From TrEMBL:
Domain (EAL): residue spans on this chain: 23-275
Superkingdom field: Bacteria
Protein species of origin: Sulfurimonas aquatica
One Gene Ontology molecular-function label: cyclic-guanylate-specific phosphodiesterase activity
Stated name of the protein: EAL domain-containing protein
Keywords: Membrane, Transmembrane, Transmembrane helix
Length: 275
């Protein structure tokens, strides 16, 4: 083992090098993830105030033989930067729609399914065509399950009017919108009022700090605003019983988090619904 400061610096450089190398590996290997069948979907239950399962959020997973599991927090931003998110997002969409179609004709009682859509994907020129094709393929005869697109306010969108236009067209296909990660990014109050959204998700970073009085009153304010705007309120990252209790006092509509279930495989989620 090396002990002196000089070697410490060398070790640090090696670590830094490894980090940079890993990011390069991720970028390179992500590109083949679809053709190598390394991408899969998991589903995290959403629960209502009576403790019934109403649906789930679809979350992507990537397992690579060299890198192991890479978290979406890491590879989604990379995919957004390289443009690979278009291909990846389309794959996720088709997979999710296929599953929703199966659930729609089942007796599982699933009411809604939420899919994360990157801003870059939503605003891509082919997106509306992709949706149209997918709708035709899977829901030619309609769909009882409410399909929700979760969007995040990345920047005070440079093309705000096109965004509203695209969202309104998608609404005509029966898709509704949820504002994800509310309170973390640039999402502003005027956005909430002007965008055609039906649901608001309180970010897990707020929920995890509910023990703090100031944070708790901030969450109450967010809930009040959402109620004023008639939005369905989803609390994400609910891990503890006291969090659920407080959120229930505020009259949140839906709950999602490890307290109920982690994101799970399709068959596991189906069993979860049957319980
Ligand atoms: P998100 O949309 O805010 O998703 C919620 C994240 O919180 C998920 O992480 C979920 O596994 C995690 N989570 C749920 N309950 C709890 C809890 O009780 N405690 C804690 N600590 N975490 C909880 P995940 O699956 O790693 O996804 C991370 C982010 O990656 C997502 O954040 C979303 O921004 C992005 N992402 C995931 N799947 C997709 C996808 O299919 N498409 C796109 N565009 N982005 C995705
Ligand atoms: Ca989400
Ligand atoms: Ca979040």
């Amino acid at each position: 083992a090396k002990h002196n400061g000089r070697d410490g610096i060398i070790v640090f450089n090696e670590e830094l090098c490894e980090l940079v190398q890993r990011k390069l590996d991720i970028e390179r290997l992500l590109h083949f993830a679809l053709e190598k069948d390394e991408i899969s979907l998991v589903y995290q239950p959403q629960i209502d105030e009576k403790n019934l399962v109403v649906g789930c959020e679809v979350l992507v997973r990537w397992h690579n033989e060299k890198l192991g599991f890479v978290p979406p927090d890491i590879f989604i931003p990379i995919a957004e930067n390289t443009g690979f998110i278009i291909e990846l997002g389309e794959y996720i969409l088709y997979e999710a729609f296929q599953t929703i179609k199966e659930w729609d004709t089942s007796d599982l009682g699933i009411k809604q399914v939420s899919i994360n859509i990157s801003m870059r994907q939503l605003m891509h020129q082919d997106f509306l065509n992709t949706i149209q094709r997918a709708m035709k393929k899977y829901f030619r005869y309609g769909c009882e399950i409410n399909i929700i697109f979760e969007i995040t306010e990345t920047s005070a969108s440079d093309d705000y009017r096109s965004l509203v236009r695209v969202m309104n067209i998608l609404k005509r296909y029966g898709i509704t919108f949820s504002m994800d990660d509310f309170g973390t990014g640039y999402s502003s109050l005027s956005y909430l009022r002007e965008l055609p959204i039906e649901e608001l998700k309180i970010d897990k970073s707020f929920i995890s700090q509910l023990a703090d009085v100031q944070q708790a009153s901030l969450v109450k304010t967010i809930v009040d605003i959402a109620k004023n705007l008639n939005l369905t309120i989803v609390a994400e990252g609910v891990e503890e019983e006291y969090q659920r209790e407080y959120l229930q006092e505020l009259d949140c509509d839906l709950y999602q988090g490890y307290l109920y279930s982690k994101p799970i495989k399709k068959e596991e989620f189906e069993n979860f619904c049957r319980k």
